[in-house]
Amino acid sequence: AQSVTQPDIHITVSEGASLELRCNYSYGATPYLFWYVQSPGQGLQLLLKYFSGDTLVQGIKGFEAEFKRSQSSFNLRKPSVHWSDAAEYFCAVGARVGGTSYGKLTFGQGTILTVHP
Amino acid sequence: DVKVTQSSRYLVKRTGEKVFLECVQDMDHENMFWYRQDPGLGLRLIYFSYDVKMKEKGDIPEGYSVSREKKERFSLILESASTNQTSMYLCASSPLPSTIYFGEGSWLTVV
User: Fold this and answer.
1) Higher pLDDT, A28 or B54
2) For residues A49-60, b (16+ Cβ closer than 10 Å) or e, as one string?
3) Residue B33 and residue A103: Cβ atoms within 8 Å?
4) Would you call A101 and B99 a contact, using CB atoms and an 8 Å cutoff?
5) Which residues share a beta bridge with B8?
6) Which residues pair with A78 in a beta bridge?
7) Do residue A105 and residue B45 have CB atoms under 8 angstroms apart?
8) Rounded to 5°, angle at Cα B88 from B82 and B91
9) Residue A99 pLDDT
10) Residues of A with CB under 8 A from a CB of B
11) Residue A102: is its pLDDT beyond 70?
């Protein structure tokens, strides 16, 4: 069975600083990887996804993530954090369901990002 | 834009009540999902459905059932609500094969 670990429960950065959120996964086949963001009281918004191809994936809001198979990692990065990036971030690995979909996501525990002015 | 709508955002129910959480998607997606979100545990899959009248158990189905009579609608049912089912419930949908889109969530408190 697949699993996802986000080692950092809470990260605090200053506005304008760079950011890296860690994600490690365990999956027996080629993983399908996602990063979602959740603002307080809201649902989850997709930041980016990796299905295949280029291991550096660009997402929305200036985020990117790099898939490293040798390290079983899919870390999320942003070069300069804005105060509006404060939220909770979830890494997820997708598994096939019904033979075709990758919707059976297994989520990490989440990382809460606080941004100081 | 894809829209996944959960009709009830905040509910308070009594122990033993039957609870229905409704979810509707407007993009003709084949797959629909119910997740539960608890602090420190991330999201856990309760049930999913990849076709009308089809359902599969997720990782934590105990105490829940689902219904999918129409493609656009997926209902989560708590037959007899208990306090340990107090949580945020997230509905989601996806086409084949692609990204999941989430609703805004339903906060359920069982007292």
Assistant:
1) B54
2) bbbeeeeebebe
3) yes
4) no
5) none
6) A19
7) yes
8) 110
9) 54
10) 4, 9, 34, 36, 41-46, 49, 90, 92, 96-98, 100-110
11) no
Distance CA B27, CA B46 (A): 22
CA A26, CA A69: separation in Å to the nearest integer? 10
Q: Is the pLDDT of residue A28 over 80?
A: no
Query: Could you give the percent of chain A with pLDDT greater than 90?
Result: 69
Q: What residues in chain B have per-residue pLDDT under 50? A: none
CA torsion angle B106 B59 A6 A93 (round to 10): -100
Contact B87, B71 (CB under 8 A): no
E-strand stretches of chain A: 3-5, 10-14, 19-21, 24-26, 32-38, 44-50, 56-58, 64-68, 73-78, 87-97, 101-107, 111-116
Residue with tokens 């200053």: A14
pLDDT tens by residue, A43-58: 889 999 998 888 999 9
Question: CA torsion sign, B58 to B64 to B65 to B66?
Answer: negative
Contact list, A3 vs chain B (CB under 8 Å): none
